[in-house]
Design a protein that fits this description.
Layout: E1 5-8, H1 14-24, H2 35-38, E2 48-52, E3 58-65, E4 74-82, H3 88-96, E5 105-111, H4 116-123, E6 127-137, E7 152-156, H5 162-173, H6 184-192, E8 202-206, E9 209-218, E10 225-233, H7 242-256, E11 261-267, H8 271-280, E12 283-294
Parallel strand pairs: 4-5, 10-11
Antiparallel strand pairs: 1-2, 2-3, 3-4, 5-12, 6-11, 6-12, 7-8, 8-9, 9-10
Helix pairs in contact: 5-6
Length: 296
């Protein structure tokens, strides 16, 4: 396929890039290819490239999300996919060349045993840095209510709680790989998303201080499936049962909303969280692998 061309995505190519991402992005990682997330794509802010064949059909695409990540010296791939594996190298090189100097690390997630893309990534300096379990609960209606710890109040979370929300998330995840500090604006966007399952998106206060949060969304492709995207407790409030209460409340709420199952992801190294999820009735369904490359 020597007649393949690699093109930078600008405004004129934005629509074809988004169409390809919607069609093929989920092959490797569907985290950022929902219609809502793709609507946020801006070629001026997110380096992107496409591979085009002799008939002008798009046969590959790659892009690097900088918003938030760049503050931590990182960038995450929204999509890395090619119908012809030999062109992964050219696509990735094209977007890497457009990164700001402050970015020293790029990463993406793949399913375990992802096939030819693994060989392509390994050949250009990527390596596996960590793994995460994808767990599923298939009986959300069966999760019991728990008594809250003393002085603890749990309520529905909305955009009005954005300031307290980012306080919890930033305190809980500060310094973790692949995480970046939320801004007030981004927290408000997350809590206002139409995909948020309102009854299962909660914030906990203990003694009047924000202590924990859980964010649950409806699967874009299946309205009867939900995903807990964030479960966080501030370090000073951990070990008191707040996270367990939030988890139980959120899972039970998905059942009341008619969801047949709910999923959650967790690092294989986070044994405490894995134990909590298994004890709540989740079962391991899949493993996702983080591939990263350090830039010179």
């Amino acid at each position: 396929m020597s007649d393949i061309r690699i093109l930078d995505v600008d405004e004129s190519l934005s629509e074809v890039f988004v169409s390809y991402a919607a069609a093929y992005g989920g092959v490797h990682d569907d985290s950022y290819i929902t219609p809502e997330e793709l609507a946020r794509f801006d070629p001026e802010l997110e380096p992107a490239a496409i591979a085009v064949d002799a008939g002008n059909a798009v046969v590959g695409a790659a892009s690097l999300m900088l918003d938030g990540y760049a503050r931590e010296g990182s960038a995450r791939f929204r999509i890395t996919h090619s119908l012809y594996p030999e062109y992964y190298h050219a696509l990735i090189d094209r977007v890497l060349a457009r990164l700001p100097d402050a970015v020293s690390r790029v990463f993406l997630f793949l399913p375990e045993r992802a096939g030819e893309v693994e060989d392509a990534l390994g050949a250009i300096g990527f390596g596996i840095s960590r793994r995460a379990y994808v767990l599923r609960h298939t009986d959300p209606r069966g999760v019991p209510h728990l008594e809250y710890p003393s002085e603890t109040h749990i309520q529905l979370a909305t955009a009005a709680n954005a300031s307290d929300w980012l306080h919890v998330v930033n305190a809980a995840f500060h310094g973790e790989p692949g995480r970046y500090d939320l801004t007030y604006e981004r927290a408000g966007e997350l809590l206002s998303s139409p995909r948020v399952l309102r009854g299962a998106t909660l914030i906990a206060y203990r003694g009047g201080v924000p202590a924990g949060v859980v964010l649950t969304t409806i699967d874009a492709a299946d309205p009867c499936a939900a995903e807990i995207e964030t479960l966080a407790v501030t370090p000073t409030q951990q070990g008191m049962g707040i996270g367990r209460c939030l988890l139980h409340e959120a899972v039970a709420a998905t059942g009341r909303e008619g969801c047949r199952w709910v999923t959650i992801s967790v690092s294989t190294f986070n044994r405490r969280a894995v134990a909590l999820y298994l004890d709540t009735g989740f079962q391991a369904e899949d493993i996702r692998v983080c591939w990263e490359r350090r830039l010179a």
